[in-house]
Amino acid sequence: MTLNTVAVVGAGTMGSSIALAVAMSDLPVVLKDVDSKAVDNGIKRIEKMIASQVRKGLSESDAEKRRALITTTTDVKDIADASFVIEVVPEQLHIKEAVLSELDRVLKPGVIIATNTSSLPISQLARFTKRPDKVVGLHFFNPAHLMKLVEVIPGLDTDEVTVEAAMDFARKLGKMPVRVEECASFLVNRLLGRYMNESLFCLEEGLGNVEQIDQAVCDYVMPVGPFTLRDMNGCDIGLAVARFNFQEYGPRYAVPGVLESMVANNWLGQKTGRGFYTYDAETKKKSGINPELPSVVKGNASVNGSLNPERLFLPMINEAFLALQEKICRAEDLDPALKAGLGMRKGPLELAGDMGLDNCLTQMESLFEKYGERFRPAPLLKRYVFAGHTKVI
Q: pTM for the whole thing?
Protein backbone atom coordinates (compact mmCIF):
# COMPACT_ATOMS: atom_id res chain seq x y z
CA MET A 1 0.00 0.00 0.00
CA THR A 2 1.36 3.39 -1.04
CA LEU A 3 0.72 6.11 1.51
CA ASN A 4 0.45 9.58 0.05
CA THR A 5 -1.83 11.34 2.50
CA VAL A 6 -3.43 10.02 5.67
CA ALA A 7 -6.69 11.55 6.87
CA VAL A 8 -7.75 11.60 10.52
CA VAL A 9 -11.45 12.37 10.93
CA GLY A 10 -12.14 13.78 14.38
CA ALA A 11 -9.88 16.37 16.03
CA GLY A 12 -10.57 15.51 19.66
CA THR A 13 -8.02 14.27 22.18
CA MET A 14 -7.38 10.94 20.42
CA GLY A 15 -7.68 12.28 16.88
CA SER A 16 -5.14 15.03 17.56
CA SER A 17 -2.72 12.57 19.13
CA ILE A 18 -3.11 10.12 16.22
CA ALA A 19 -2.51 12.93 13.71
CA LEU A 20 0.72 13.80 15.52
CA ALA A 21 1.76 10.13 15.53
CA VAL A 22 1.34 10.10 11.74
CA ALA A 23 3.38 13.29 11.33
CA MET A 24 6.10 11.90 13.59
CA SER A 25 6.53 9.15 11.00
CA ASP A 26 7.14 11.72 8.23
CA LEU A 27 3.74 11.14 6.62
CA PRO A 28 1.47 14.02 5.58
CA VAL A 29 -1.81 14.03 7.46
CA VAL A 30 -5.06 15.97 7.12
CA LEU A 31 -6.96 16.50 10.35
CA LYS A 32 -10.70 16.98 9.71
CA ASP A 33 -13.59 17.97 11.94
CA VAL A 34 -17.05 19.47 11.55
CA ASP A 35 -16.17 23.12 12.16
CA SER A 36 -13.25 25.50 12.52
CA LYS A 37 -13.53 25.64 16.32
CA ALA A 38 -13.10 21.88 16.62
CA VAL A 39 -10.16 21.93 14.21
CA ASP A 40 -8.53 24.87 16.01
CA ASN A 41 -8.86 23.07 19.34
CA GLY A 42 -7.23 20.02 17.76
CA ILE A 43 -4.28 22.08 16.59
CA LYS A 44 -3.94 23.62 20.05
CA ARG A 45 -3.70 20.12 21.50
CA ILE A 46 -1.06 19.18 18.95
CA GLU A 47 0.93 22.32 19.75
CA LYS A 48 0.93 21.39 23.45
CA MET A 49 2.15 17.89 22.62
CA ILE A 50 4.90 19.20 20.35
CA ALA A 51 5.93 21.76 22.98
CA SER A 52 6.27 18.92 25.47
CA GLN A 53 8.45 17.04 23.00
CA VAL A 54 10.66 20.12 22.54
CA ARG A 55 11.10 20.42 26.31
CA LYS A 56 12.25 16.80 26.30
CA GLY A 57 14.85 17.37 23.58
CA LEU A 58 13.14 17.52 20.18
CA SER A 59 14.88 20.07 17.98
CA GLU A 60 12.95 23.12 16.78
CA SER A 61 13.60 22.11 13.17
CA ASP A 62 12.06 18.66 13.73
CA ALA A 63 9.16 20.25 15.58
CA GLU A 64 8.51 22.56 12.66
CA LYS A 65 8.71 19.63 10.25
CA ARG A 66 5.97 17.85 12.19
CA ARG A 67 3.79 20.96 12.17
CA ALA A 68 4.25 21.34 8.42
CA LEU A 69 3.06 17.78 7.78
CA ILE A 70 -0.29 18.48 9.47
CA THR A 71 -3.00 20.34 7.59
CA THR A 72 -6.62 20.82 8.57
CA THR A 73 -10.03 21.01 6.92
CA THR A 74 -13.74 21.08 7.68
CA ASP A 75 -14.67 19.92 4.16
CA VAL A 76 -14.81 16.18 3.53
CA LYS A 77 -14.00 16.78 -0.14
CA ASP A 78 -10.48 17.81 0.91
CA ILE A 79 -9.73 14.24 1.97
CA ALA A 80 -11.21 12.59 -1.12
CA ASP A 81 -7.73 11.62 -2.35
CA ALA A 82 -6.48 10.24 0.97
CA SER A 83 -4.85 6.83 0.73
CA PHE A 84 -5.68 5.77 4.32
CA VAL A 85 -8.39 7.15 6.61
CA ILE A 86 -8.78 6.85 10.38
CA GLU A 87 -12.17 7.69 11.91
CA VAL A 88 -11.93 9.01 15.48
CA VAL A 89 -15.35 10.55 16.15
CA PRO A 90 -17.35 10.15 19.41
CA GLU A 91 -18.42 6.65 20.47
CA GLN A 92 -22.07 7.11 19.51
CA LEU A 93 -23.49 4.80 16.88
CA HIS A 94 -25.50 7.44 15.01
CA ILE A 95 -22.46 9.70 14.72
CA LYS A 96 -20.30 6.84 13.49
CA GLU A 97 -22.97 5.90 10.96
CA ALA A 98 -23.19 9.40 9.52
CA VAL A 99 -19.41 9.83 9.28
CA LEU A 100 -18.65 6.40 7.85
CA SER A 101 -21.42 6.67 5.26
CA GLU A 102 -20.08 10.05 4.16
CA LEU A 103 -16.51 8.79 3.95
CA ASP A 104 -17.64 5.82 1.90
CA ARG A 105 -19.31 8.14 -0.63
CA VAL A 106 -16.32 10.48 -0.95
CA LEU A 107 -13.28 8.21 -0.84
CA LYS A 108 -11.93 6.35 -3.82
CA PRO A 109 -12.86 2.66 -4.14
CA GLY A 110 -10.48 0.39 -2.27
CA VAL A 111 -9.32 2.99 0.25
CA ILE A 112 -9.24 1.56 3.78
CA ILE A 113 -11.38 3.14 6.48
CA ALA A 114 -9.97 2.35 9.93
CA THR A 115 -12.06 3.07 13.00
CA ASN A 116 -10.50 3.84 16.35
CA THR A 117 -13.55 2.65 18.26
CA SER A 118 -12.78 1.12 21.64
CA SER A 119 -16.11 -0.65 22.07
CA LEU A 120 -18.45 -0.67 19.07
CA PRO A 121 -18.51 -3.82 16.88
CA ILE A 122 -16.42 -3.47 13.73
CA SER A 123 -18.86 -5.68 11.80
CA GLN A 124 -21.72 -3.33 12.66
CA LEU A 125 -19.76 -0.21 11.71
CA ALA A 126 -18.69 -1.77 8.43
CA ARG A 127 -22.34 -2.11 7.41
CA PHE A 128 -22.57 1.68 7.22
CA THR A 129 -20.38 1.53 4.12
CA LYS A 130 -20.46 -0.27 0.79
CA ARG A 131 -16.90 -1.46 1.38
CA PRO A 132 -17.14 -3.68 4.49
CA ASP A 133 -14.10 -5.60 3.28
CA LYS A 134 -12.07 -2.38 3.64
CA VAL A 135 -13.23 -1.44 7.15
CA VAL A 136 -11.01 -2.45 10.07
CA GLY A 137 -10.59 -1.55 13.73
CA LEU A 138 -7.39 0.32 14.54
CA HIS A 139 -7.51 0.83 18.29
CA PHE A 140 -4.80 3.21 19.51
CA PHE A 141 -4.08 3.71 23.20
CA ASN A 142 -3.98 7.11 24.84
CA PRO A 143 -1.78 9.09 24.27
CA ALA A 144 -1.56 7.68 20.75
CA HIS A 145 1.62 9.54 19.80
CA LEU A 146 3.46 7.90 22.70
CA MET A 147 1.83 4.51 23.34
CA LYS A 148 3.21 1.65 21.25
CA LEU A 149 0.29 -0.76 21.16
CA VAL A 150 -2.30 -0.74 18.38
CA GLU A 151 -5.00 -3.41 18.33
CA VAL A 152 -5.96 -4.34 14.77
CA ILE A 153 -9.47 -5.79 14.71
CA PRO A 154 -11.09 -7.25 11.57
CA GLY A 155 -14.85 -7.43 11.26
CA LEU A 156 -16.63 -10.44 9.80
CA ASP A 157 -16.28 -9.08 6.27
CA THR A 158 -12.83 -7.48 6.52
CA ASP A 159 -10.50 -9.11 4.01
CA GLU A 160 -6.98 -10.25 4.86
CA VAL A 161 -5.39 -7.69 2.52
CA THR A 162 -7.00 -4.95 4.61
CA VAL A 163 -5.80 -6.51 7.87
CA GLU A 164 -2.23 -6.77 6.62
CA ALA A 165 -2.33 -3.21 5.29
CA ALA A 166 -3.53 -1.96 8.68
CA MET A 167 -0.75 -3.91 10.42
CA ASP A 168 1.82 -2.43 8.02
CA PHE A 169 0.44 1.06 8.57
CA ALA A 170 0.81 0.69 12.34
CA ARG A 171 4.39 -0.51 11.88
CA LYS A 172 5.14 2.54 9.71
CA LEU A 173 4.10 4.65 12.69
CA GLY A 174 6.59 2.77 14.87
CA LYS A 175 3.81 0.99 16.72
CA MET A 176 3.40 -2.62 17.83
CA PRO A 177 0.29 -3.95 16.06
CA VAL A 178 -1.48 -6.96 17.55
CA ARG A 179 -4.26 -8.70 15.67
CA VAL A 180 -7.32 -9.14 17.88
CA GLU A 181 -10.45 -10.94 16.77
CA GLU A 182 -13.69 -9.07 17.30
CA CYS A 183 -15.11 -9.24 20.82
CA ALA A 184 -16.52 -6.77 23.32
CA SER A 185 -13.78 -4.40 24.63
CA PHE A 186 -11.29 -6.24 22.40
CA LEU A 187 -8.28 -7.68 24.26
CA VAL A 188 -6.50 -5.25 26.58
CA ASN A 189 -9.55 -3.41 27.92
CA ARG A 190 -11.43 -6.69 28.27
CA LEU A 191 -8.75 -8.09 30.58
CA LEU A 192 -8.24 -4.75 32.32
CA GLY A 193 -11.93 -4.69 33.25
CA ARG A 194 -11.66 -7.86 35.32
CA TYR A 195 -8.76 -6.51 37.36
CA MET A 196 -10.32 -3.07 37.83
CA ASN A 197 -13.58 -4.58 39.08
CA GLU A 198 -11.78 -6.92 41.47
CA SER A 199 -9.93 -4.01 43.05
CA LEU A 200 -13.31 -2.54 44.00
CA PHE A 201 -14.56 -5.82 45.44
CA CYS A 202 -11.37 -6.08 47.52
CA LEU A 203 -11.92 -2.52 48.75
CA GLU A 204 -15.47 -3.42 49.77
CA GLU A 205 -14.17 -6.45 51.65
CA GLY A 206 -11.79 -4.30 53.64
CA LEU A 207 -8.67 -6.10 52.41
CA GLY A 208 -6.98 -2.73 52.17
CA ASN A 209 -7.78 0.94 51.82
CA VAL A 210 -7.42 2.89 48.57
CA GLU A 211 -3.76 3.78 49.09
CA GLN A 212 -2.80 0.30 50.33
CA ILE A 213 -4.34 -1.44 47.32
CA ASP A 214 -2.83 1.05 44.87
CA GLN A 215 0.60 0.61 46.43
CA ALA A 216 0.33 -3.18 46.55
CA VAL A 217 -0.32 -3.53 42.83
CA CYS A 218 2.39 -1.00 41.97
CA ASP A 219 4.88 -2.98 44.03
CA TYR A 220 3.67 -6.15 42.33
CA VAL A 221 3.43 -5.43 38.59
CA MET A 222 1.58 -2.24 37.60
CA PRO A 223 2.87 1.30 36.93
CA VAL A 224 -0.18 2.91 38.55
CA GLY A 225 -2.80 1.65 40.98
CA PRO A 226 -6.41 0.87 40.00
CA PHE A 227 -7.97 3.73 41.98
CA THR A 228 -5.51 6.30 40.68
CA LEU A 229 -6.21 5.03 37.16
CA ARG A 230 -9.98 5.11 37.72
CA ASP A 231 -9.78 8.73 38.91
CA MET A 232 -7.63 9.64 35.90
CA ASN A 233 -10.06 8.13 33.39
CA GLY A 234 -13.23 9.16 35.20
CA CYS A 235 -15.55 6.99 37.29
CA ASP A 236 -18.42 7.77 34.92
CA ILE A 237 -16.45 6.32 32.02
CA GLY A 238 -15.49 3.37 34.19
CA LEU A 239 -19.13 2.71 35.07
CA ALA A 240 -20.22 2.88 31.42
CA VAL A 241 -17.52 0.37 30.47
CA ALA A 242 -18.34 -1.90 33.41
CA ARG A 243 -22.04 -1.94 32.49
CA PHE A 244 -21.19 -2.64 28.85
CA ASN A 245 -18.94 -5.57 29.76
CA PHE A 246 -21.58 -6.98 32.12
CA GLN A 247 -24.15 -6.78 29.33
CA GLU A 248 -21.83 -8.55 26.90
CA TYR A 249 -20.14 -11.14 29.14
CA GLY A 250 -22.53 -11.72 32.01
CA PRO A 251 -22.08 -12.32 35.77
CA ARG A 252 -18.29 -12.57 35.85
CA TYR A 253 -18.29 -8.86 34.96
CA ALA A 254 -20.74 -7.92 37.72
CA VAL A 255 -20.62 -4.17 38.36
CA PRO A 256 -19.29 -3.31 41.85
CA GLY A 257 -21.81 -1.29 43.85
CA VAL A 258 -19.22 1.24 44.96
CA LEU A 259 -18.72 2.37 41.37
CA GLU A 260 -22.44 3.05 41.00
CA SER A 261 -22.33 5.07 44.23
CA MET A 262 -19.29 7.09 43.12
CA VAL A 263 -21.09 8.26 39.99
CA ALA A 264 -24.34 8.94 41.88
CA ASN A 265 -22.36 11.26 44.18
CA ASN A 266 -20.57 12.90 41.23
CA TRP A 267 -17.23 11.72 42.61
CA LEU A 268 -15.81 11.15 39.17
CA GLY A 269 -12.11 11.65 39.88
CA GLN A 270 -9.71 14.36 38.79
CA LYS A 271 -12.26 16.18 36.63
CA THR A 272 -14.58 16.85 39.59
CA GLY A 273 -11.83 17.20 42.21
CA ARG A 274 -13.00 14.16 44.10
CA GLY A 275 -13.07 10.44 43.36
CA PHE A 276 -11.30 7.75 45.33
CA TYR A 277 -8.87 10.52 46.14
CA THR A 278 -9.33 14.26 46.53
CA TYR A 279 -7.47 16.69 44.27
CA ASP A 280 -6.19 20.22 44.58
CA ALA A 281 -8.37 22.51 42.46
CA GLU A 282 -5.43 24.30 40.83
CA THR A 283 -2.69 21.69 40.49
CA LYS A 284 -4.98 18.63 40.14
CA LYS A 285 -2.57 16.77 42.40
CA LYS A 286 -3.78 14.29 45.00
CA SER A 287 -4.44 15.75 48.42
CA GLY A 288 -5.56 12.56 50.17
CA ILE A 289 -8.15 9.78 50.21
CA ASN A 290 -11.74 10.94 49.78
CA PRO A 291 -12.85 11.22 53.44
CA GLU A 292 -16.47 10.43 52.51
CA LEU A 293 -15.57 7.18 50.76
CA PRO A 294 -16.50 4.93 53.72
CA SER A 295 -20.12 6.07 53.34
CA VAL A 296 -20.40 4.29 49.97
CA VAL A 297 -18.06 1.34 50.51
CA LYS A 298 -20.40 -1.32 51.81
CA GLY A 299 -18.95 -3.81 54.24
CA ASN A 300 -15.70 -1.88 54.73
CA ALA A 301 -16.17 -1.28 58.44
CA SER A 302 -12.53 -2.06 59.15
CA VAL A 303 -9.48 -2.29 56.95
CA ASN A 304 -7.29 -5.26 57.79
CA GLY A 305 -4.63 -4.71 55.10
CA SER A 306 -4.43 -8.43 54.32
CA LEU A 307 -4.56 -8.12 50.55
CA ASN A 308 -2.47 -10.53 48.52
CA PRO A 309 -2.07 -8.71 45.17
CA GLU A 310 -2.37 -12.02 43.33
CA ARG A 311 -6.07 -11.91 44.21
CA LEU A 312 -6.62 -8.86 41.99
CA PHE A 313 -4.94 -10.48 39.00
CA LEU A 314 -6.54 -13.92 39.15
CA PRO A 315 -9.65 -12.67 37.28
CA MET A 316 -7.41 -11.09 34.64
CA ILE A 317 -5.43 -14.32 34.32
CA ASN A 318 -8.64 -16.31 34.00
CA GLU A 319 -9.94 -13.93 31.32
CA ALA A 320 -6.66 -14.33 29.46
CA PHE A 321 -7.27 -18.08 29.26
CA LEU A 322 -10.85 -17.46 28.10
CA ALA A 323 -9.55 -15.12 25.39
CA LEU A 324 -7.05 -17.76 24.23
CA GLN A 325 -9.80 -20.36 24.31
CA GLU A 326 -11.86 -18.12 22.00
CA LYS A 327 -8.79 -17.54 19.78
CA ILE A 328 -9.07 -13.78 20.26
CA CYS A 329 -5.32 -13.44 19.77
CA ARG A 330 -2.20 -15.57 19.49
CA ALA A 331 -0.81 -16.76 22.81
CA GLU A 332 2.55 -15.17 22.04
CA ASP A 333 0.88 -11.77 21.51
CA LEU A 334 -1.15 -11.64 24.69
CA ASP A 335 1.48 -10.66 27.25
CA PRO A 336 3.26 -8.18 24.96
CA ALA A 337 -0.08 -6.50 24.27
CA LEU A 338 -0.90 -6.14 27.97
CA LYS A 339 2.59 -4.90 28.77
CA ALA A 340 2.55 -2.34 25.95
CA GLY A 341 -1.05 -1.26 26.53
CA LEU A 342 -1.07 -1.09 30.33
CA GLY A 343 2.60 -0.79 31.25
CA MET A 344 2.57 -4.08 33.17
CA ARG A 345 6.04 -5.36 34.00
CA LYS A 346 4.79 -8.92 33.51
CA GLY A 347 1.79 -10.02 31.48
CA PRO A 348 -1.00 -12.22 32.89
CA LEU A 349 0.35 -15.43 31.35
CA GLU A 350 3.78 -14.79 32.80
CA LEU A 351 2.21 -14.03 36.18
CA ALA A 352 0.30 -17.30 35.96
CA GLY A 353 3.53 -19.16 35.21
CA ASP A 354 5.26 -17.51 38.16
CA MET A 355 2.38 -18.41 40.47
CA GLY A 356 2.14 -21.92 39.02
CA LEU A 357 -0.82 -22.86 36.84
CA ASP A 358 -1.88 -25.51 39.32
CA ASN A 359 -1.76 -22.94 42.12
CA CYS A 360 -3.81 -20.49 40.01
CA LEU A 361 -6.43 -23.15 39.47
CA THR A 362 -6.51 -24.13 43.15
CA GLN A 363 -6.96 -20.50 44.22
CA MET A 364 -9.66 -19.90 41.62
CA GLU A 365 -11.58 -23.01 42.62
CA SER A 366 -11.51 -21.90 46.25
CA LEU A 367 -12.60 -18.37 45.36
CA PHE A 368 -15.28 -19.72 43.02
CA GLU A 369 -16.82 -21.63 45.93
CA LYS A 370 -16.93 -18.38 47.92
CA TYR A 371 -17.76 -15.73 45.29
CA GLY A 372 -19.25 -17.55 42.31
CA GLU A 373 -18.96 -16.60 38.65
CA ARG A 374 -16.14 -14.04 39.02
CA PHE A 375 -13.80 -16.95 39.64
CA ARG A 376 -15.24 -19.83 37.62
CA PRO A 377 -12.01 -21.35 36.19
CA ALA A 378 -11.57 -21.19 32.44
CA PRO A 379 -11.76 -24.67 30.85
CA LEU A 380 -8.48 -24.01 29.02
CA LEU A 381 -6.68 -23.33 32.31
CA LYS A 382 -7.96 -26.66 33.61
CA ARG A 383 -6.69 -28.43 30.50
CA TYR A 384 -3.22 -26.95 30.93
CA VAL A 385 -3.12 -28.10 34.55
CA PHE A 386 -4.52 -31.56 33.76
CA ALA A 387 -1.84 -31.96 31.09
CA GLY A 388 0.87 -31.06 33.56
CA HIS A 389 1.89 -27.78 31.87
CA THR A 390 3.62 -25.26 34.08
CA LYS A 391 3.35 -22.30 31.69
CA VAL A 392 1.55 -21.31 28.50
CA ILE A 393 4.42 -20.19 26.26
A: 0.95
